[in-house]
């Protein structure tokens, strides 16, 4: 008898609660209007753009995408317009914004934010977003919320602090929420099936006080580190750049994986800076993170501990990495990694 | 341009040896004796009982590592004797009664003088980046600063905002995550190579400007004993936020601070075959 009574009490409570809940949700959806700031390079959307959209969609209200650069309407804006759930794409075609320099891009955004009366501004926590959004926030007199990993409500967000050793939940009292999002925490955008209208954004033509001179990007045929489903990562234990390349490149090839590195490996010149995984490098959360010769400092763990499966090869059985690895192999990486590579290849 | 007047804002944070185990380039983490290293591995920031923040009482603090880089760079700009002479290096920090410790370190490394902006410790993590940026703007204007060198982020809050916000408020050019800074001519042209996703990018701008530093920029020096002694005589001025016309209003309310979900190691395997079969079992291969 008691269970039935409980059941009906619960149901009664639910029917009382439900109408108010739907009401407040739809009211929220009407008020909430998010601008997702997309990152493009040579007319192609970058992966940080998709995480910005994923977070914007999670917020619940209408989502407008924003793009600026050389001839973006036919390229990245058209690509964005196909993403499901985007209501409108604001595009500003002007070569001055192609390199995403914050000095003129920030005033451009502020103009569009004010004109569109957006309540939430979201960008990926990539080099582009990290450099641009705080400047935008300051111009709007708003305290930004960086690198969020969760959304609890329209004004409450979750973010890691102290290299991921603590999780902070904050509530913003600002009228406009300016947010950067951690790519690995926001995924799952449908890139087909949408048909958003592409409209001209406002262009204040703010002068650029910085001049872009040149860039040097590490060229790679391998998957992008931040979004790869498999990552192999090497540390100080690799001993030299030659050994790093000799051991890690075939391993990556055998798994179709992106290559990462610890700070120690980057500092010692074994691998390029852009491959660094950790608190001050990239955050990754692949299906498989296989690391060799990495002890597992907290700063490194900060960048990879959300990986689905972590595997470690290290000769020190006491290495902290074994405390988080789903599977660990104690042994000399110079023997074990090539053996693993061979066996995976022939399997 | 007459001379470089550099402002270097620094922050006192929980020592990174607590956060970091792998030694730096130099071999052994700064301020950590080899004997300590093993015990340090087990120390982690502890969350307080009220879940409002991280326990800071009795925990070793030091200069935020990125800020060490910015002081070092300021001092190197002076030593390099570039086209513009460095006239003044002003270190600044906002915080409670122990803040002068890090300012003395900054002066021992080569800063000429320091401002301690006295902000009572309320256990709320200190003023937010926007407040700090407004405070810095006031100092820049009063002290006629033409270059601000900041760390790219503080390793406690991990926000990475202050430099960009300051540049925005001042309307100055900014270069974040710099790995190379070069003053090109006496007209104040500066070329900065900085870290971006996938590589590096080089930018050119005219002073005044704001630069934030990345780990690759330089290797900070140790403060020698004579320099530590000399630093004690360098001027350290105490000011308040009110002196600078800034109010410490918080825009973000901390609801709670919690432990991240723990991750348990899955144990070890004997050989490569064991590794492969376990990965297959876990669906990763």
From TrEMBL, chain A:
Q: What region holds the Electron transfer flavoprotein alpha/beta-subunit N-terminal domain?
A: 34-216
Give any Pfam family that matches. Answer: ETF
Note on cofactor:
Binds 1 FAD per dimer.
Q: What name does the UniProt record give this protein?
A: Probable electron transfer flavoprotein subunit alpha
Q: Which GO terms describe its molecular function?
A: electron transfer activity; flavin adenine dinucleotide binding
Q: Might you report a single GO cellular component term? A: mitochondrial matrix
Cofactor dependence is on: FAD
Record's subunit section: Heterodimer of an alpha and a beta subunit.
Q: Which organism is it from?
A: Penicillium arizonense
Automatic annotation (TrEMBL), chain B:
Instruction: Identify the InterPro entries for this entry.
Output: ETF_a/b_N (IPR014730), ETF_b (IPR012255), ETF_beta_N (IPR033948), Rossmann-like_a/b/a_fold (IPR014729)
Query: What assembly does the database describe for this protein?
Result: Heterodimer of an alpha and a beta subunit.
Cited SMART domains: ETF (SM00893)
What family classification does the UniProt entry report for this protein?
Belongs to the ETF beta-subunit/FixA family.
Which GO molecular function terms does the record list?
Answer: electron transfer activity
Q: Which GO terms describe its cellular component?
A: mitochondrial matrix
Q: Where is the Electron transfer flavoprotein alpha/beta-subunit N-terminal domain?
A: 51-248
Q: Which Pfam families match?
A: ETF (PF01012)
What cofactor requirement does the entry state? FAD; AMP
Protein name per Swiss-Prot or TrEMBL: Probable electron transfer flavoprotein subunit beta
GO biological process terms, semicolon-separated: amino acid catabolic process; fatty acid beta-oxidation using acyl-CoA dehydrogenase
Which CDD domains does the record associate with it? ETF_beta (cd01714)
Role of this protein: The electron transfer flavoprotein serves as a specific electron acceptor for several dehydrogenases, including five acyl-CoA dehydrogenases, glutaryl-CoA and sarcosine dehydrogenase. It transfers the electrons to the main mitochondrial respiratory chain via ETF-ubiquinone oxidoreductase (ETF dehydrogenase).
* Cofactor stoichiometry and binding remark: Binds 1 FAD per dimer.
Q: Which organism is it from?
A: Penicillium arizonense
Q: Which UniProt keywords apply?
A: Electron transport, Mitochondrion, Transport
Q: Where in the cell is it found?
A: Mitochondrion matrix
Q: Which PANTHER family does this UniProt record tie to the protein?
A: ELECTRON TRANSFER FLAVOPROTEIN BETA-SUBUNIT, ELECTRON TRANSFER FLAVOPROTEIN SUBUNIT BETA
């Amino acid at each position: 008898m008691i269970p039935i009574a409980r059941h009906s009490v619960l149901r009664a409570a639910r029917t009382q609660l439900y109408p108010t809940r739907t009401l407040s949700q739809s009211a929220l959806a009407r008020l909430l209007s998010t601008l997702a700031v997309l990152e493009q390079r040579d007319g192609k959307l970058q992966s940080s753009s998709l995480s910005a959209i994923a977070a914007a969609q999670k917020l619940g209200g209408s989502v407008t995408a924003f793009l600026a650069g050389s001839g973006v309407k036919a390229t990245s804006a058209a690509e964005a317009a196909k993403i499901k759930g985007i209501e409108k794409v604001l595009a500003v075609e002007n070569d001055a914004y192609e390199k995403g320099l914050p000095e003129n891009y920030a005033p451009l955004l502020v103009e569009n934010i004010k004109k569109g009366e957006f309540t939430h501004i979201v960008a990926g926590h990539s080099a582009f977003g990290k450099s641009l959004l705080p400047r935008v926030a300051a111009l709007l007199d708003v305290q930004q919320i960086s690198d969020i990993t969760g959304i609890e409500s329209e004004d409450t967000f979750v973010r890691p602090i102290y290299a991921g050793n603590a999780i902070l939940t904050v509530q913003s009292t600002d009228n406009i929420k300016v947010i950067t999002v951690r790519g690995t925490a926001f995924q799952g955008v449908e890139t087909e099936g949408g048909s958003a209208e592409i409209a001209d954004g406002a262009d204040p033509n703010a002068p650029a006080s910085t001049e872009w001179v040149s860039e040097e990007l590490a060229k790679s045929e391998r998957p992008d580190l931040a979004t790869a489903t498999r990552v192999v990562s090497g540390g100080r234990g690799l001993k030299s750049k030659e050994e790093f390349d000799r051991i890690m490149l075939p391993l990556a090839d055998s798994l179709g994986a992106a290559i990462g590195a610890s700070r120690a490996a980057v500092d010692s010149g074994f691998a390029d800076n852009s491959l660094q995984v950790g608190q001050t490098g990239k955050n990754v959360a692949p299906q498989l993170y296989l690391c060799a010769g990495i002890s597992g400092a907290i700063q490194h763990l900060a960048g990879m501990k959300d990986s689905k499966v972590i595997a470690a090869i290290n000769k020190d059985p006491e290495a902290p990495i074994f405390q988080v690895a789903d599977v660990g192999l104690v042994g000399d990486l110079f023997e074990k990694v090539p053996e693993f590579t061979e066996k995976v290849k022939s399997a | 341009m007459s001379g470089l007047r550099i402002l270097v804002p620094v922050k006192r944070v929980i020592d990174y040896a607590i956060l970091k185990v792998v030694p730096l380039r130099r071999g052994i983490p700064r301020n950590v004796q080899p004997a300590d290293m093993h015990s340090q591995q087990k120390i982690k920031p502890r969350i307080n009982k009220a879940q409002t923040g991280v326990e800071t009482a009795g925990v070793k603090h030091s200069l935020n590592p990125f800020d060490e880089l910015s002081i070092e760079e300021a001092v190197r700009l002076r030593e390099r004797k570039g086209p513009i002479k460095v006239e003044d290096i002003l270190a600044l920090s906002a915080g409670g009664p122990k803040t002068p410790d890090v300012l003395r370190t900054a002066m021992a490394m080569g800063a000429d003088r320091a401002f301690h902006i006295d902000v009572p410790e309320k256990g709320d993590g200190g003023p937010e980046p926007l407040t700090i940026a407004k405070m810095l703007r006031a100092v820049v204007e009063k002290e006629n600063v033409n270059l601000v060198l900041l760390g790219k982020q503080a390793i406690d809050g991990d926000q990475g905002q202050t430099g960009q916000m300051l540049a925005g408020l001042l309307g100055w050019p900014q270069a974040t995550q710099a790995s190379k800074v070069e003053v090109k001519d006496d007209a104040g042209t500066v070329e900065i190579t900085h870290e971006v996703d996938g590589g590096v990018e080089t930018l050119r701008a005219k002073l005044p400007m704001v630069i934030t530093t990345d780990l690759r920029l330089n290797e900070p020096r140790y403060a020698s004993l004579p320099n530590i002694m000399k630093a004690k005589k360098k001027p350290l001025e105490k000011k308040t936020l009110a002196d600078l016309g800034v109010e410490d209003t918080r825009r973000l309310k901390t609801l709670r601070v919690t432990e991240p979900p723990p991750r348990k190691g899955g144990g070890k395997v004997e050989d490569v075959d064991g590794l492969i079969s376990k990965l297959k079992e876990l669906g990763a291969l």
